[in-house]
Amino acid sequence: DAGVIQSPRHEVTEMGQEVTLRCKPISGHNSLFWYRQTMMRGLELLIYFNNNVPIDDSGMPEDRFSAKMPNASFSTLKIQPSEPRDSAVYFCASGTRGYEQYFGPGTRLTVT
Amino acid sequence: AQTVTQSQPEMSVQEAETVTLSCTYDTSESDYYLFWYKQPPSRQMILVIRQEAYKQQNATENRFSVNFQKAAKSFSLKISDSQLGDAAMYFCAYRSAMGNNNDMRFGAGTRLTVKP
Question: Which of B90, B70, B73 is nearest to B82 (CA)?
């Protein structure tokens, strides 16, 4: 099993640009999670999906952030427009109900 | 809402010695799961150990074991025979086993340094 796959691994962009982060969960997992990690705020849950349906997006910081899961094997997190304070490591994780979450390698986003 | 507290921002241990990382949590639920994750400098989040709340027996994975005290809502991680590769951030996490709630709550983390 390849594990959770995220792309890109690193992203550097200028303020105001659109950023799209991608995630492929582990096959057979029906839950998918997007997290953001910063030194100041630690690990924050942004949104999670069960069976491709968004269940809780209360962690999404503002309307500039959006996430989709068009099918069981793909999800995107989009930031439009991006701001320097969005700089962080973004993790995608997948799992099944009641079990641990498996994390991807993360995407380090830098907005200048 | 459930909260997870790790009161030790940093810990250090001598190689081959034993160290215990603390974690407490707050919940009104009776059925849940607890986890310890390790995040080395590569930043990959790696599951270390898992505990089901309904199990009285403490989980063990090789050199890693937990002390689960349900009444006290405490879930500490013990690392025996510490190795240099154990140096990392360690996160305690809580996950409900009830309903459709699949999200996981993480503590702020403890940075473990292993001295040779």
Answer: B90
Contacts (Cβ under 8 Å, ≥6 apart) of B8: B21, B22, B110
DSSP state letter for A1? -
Q: Per residue in A40-96, pLDDT tens? A: 888 999 999 999 999 888 889 889 999 999 999 999 999 999 999 999 999 999 998
Residue A84 · residue A15 · CB < 8 Å: yes
> Would you call B11 exposed, middle or buried from its count of C-beta atoms within 10 A (0-12, 13-18, 19+)?
middle
Residue type, B16: A
Q: Which residues have C-beta within 8 Å of that of residue B28, sequence separation ≥ 6?
A: none
Confidence of residue A1 (pLDDT cuts 50, 70, 90): low
Got the DSSP string for B11-53?
A: EEEETTS-EEE--EEE-S-SSEEEEEEEE-TT---EEEEEEET
- Which is nearest to B93 in space by CA: A107, A43, A104, A108? A43
Cβ contacts of A91 on chain B, cutoff 8 Å: 45
Instruction: Answer whether B44 sits within 8 Å of A98, measured CB to CB.
Output: no
Which of B15, B14, B24, B3 is closest to B77 using CA atoms?
B24
Contacts of B103 in chain A (CB under 8 A): 33, 45, 48, 55-56
